[in-house]
């Protein structure tokens, strides 16, 4: 087998595994997934300054420790990206759907607050 053919096969296998990793935890561990998300300017600036080290997101995508968040500053007024981007490694993920700390009436009355600490 010629070397370039082996390279093509390897590239194809890596692409397939990368796509498959999103739904398979065993394969996913082989790759650090890169996840792109919009961040509004006031929150993006706090991340840059080191004052904000968390994200509150709807759990509509898979995210695990060691994944890389690619945060892109997005201006909701102009509906355009500003061009500023920062990458952060995920260290911890808490999904709250299964966690029943409070009653629905308490959540409706008070909402949530996310507390960051160091």
Task: Report on the architecture of this protein.
The protein folds into 2 domains: 1-31; 32-118, Archaeosine Trna-guanine Transglycosylase, Chain: A, domain 4. The protein is of the alpha+beta class and 118 residues long. Helix content is 32%, strand content 20%. Strand 2 and strand 3 (80-89) form a beta hairpin. The relative contact order is 0.14. The model has no long low-confidence stretch (mean pLDDT 83). The longest helix is centred in the N-terminal third of the chain and has 19 residues, at 3-21. Strands 1-2-3 form a 3-stranded mixed β-sheet.
Salient structural properties:
118 residues; alpha+beta; Archaeosine Trna-guanine Transglycosylase, Chain: A, domain 4; three-stranded mixed beta sheet; 4 helices; 20% strand; extended
């Amino acid at each position: 087998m010629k070397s370039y053919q082996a390279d093509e096969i390897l590239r194809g296998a890596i692409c397939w595994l990368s796509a498959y990793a999103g739904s398979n935890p065993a394969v996913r561990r082989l790759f650090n997934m890169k996840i792109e998300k919009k961040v509004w300017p006031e929150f993006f600036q706090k991340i840059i300054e080191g004052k904000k080290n968390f994200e509150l997101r709807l759990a509509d995508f898979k995210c695990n420790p060691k994944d890389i968040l690619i945060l892109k500053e997005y201006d909701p007024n102009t509906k355009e990206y500003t061009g500023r981007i920062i990458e952060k490694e995920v260290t911890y993920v808490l999904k709250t759907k299964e966690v029943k700390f409070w009653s629905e009436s308490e959540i409706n009355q008070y909402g949530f607050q996310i507390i960051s600490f160091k």
